[in-house]
Structure to design on (96 residues):
């Protein structure tokens, strides 16, 4: 497990190919909370979910965000994003 308890860790996940889900982080961060934001420069929406995420789950439009709280903590490498457009980004901040 990386980091100290109560530390905020930022990251960016880029969906290189629309329709292909990518994990938020390849590092095993056990988070108590996470905020995921669709980058302002994105074209169309991103989607948040598990490895089967698609355009029917967790839609976030550019410059919008969603926050999750976990009890017990959750491995954020199990959270995936997909996008409508190649190169769209999901910015995230996790409390570990």
């Amino acid at each position: 497990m990386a980091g100290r308890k109560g530390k905020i860790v930022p990251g960016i996940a880029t969906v290189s190919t629309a329709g292909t889900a990518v994990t938020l982080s390849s590092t095993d961060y056990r988070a108590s909370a996470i905020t995921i934001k669709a980058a302002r420069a994105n074209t169309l929406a991103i989607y948040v979910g598990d490895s089967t995420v698609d355009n029917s789950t967790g839609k976030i439009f550019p410059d919008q965000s969603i926050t999750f709280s976990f009890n017990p903590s959750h491995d954020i490498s199990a959270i995936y994003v997909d996008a409508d457009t190649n190169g769209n980004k999901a910015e995230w901040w996790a409390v570990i």
Residues 21 and 87 are 12 Å apart (CA to CA). The mean pLDDT is 93. The first strand starts at residue 8 and ends at 15.
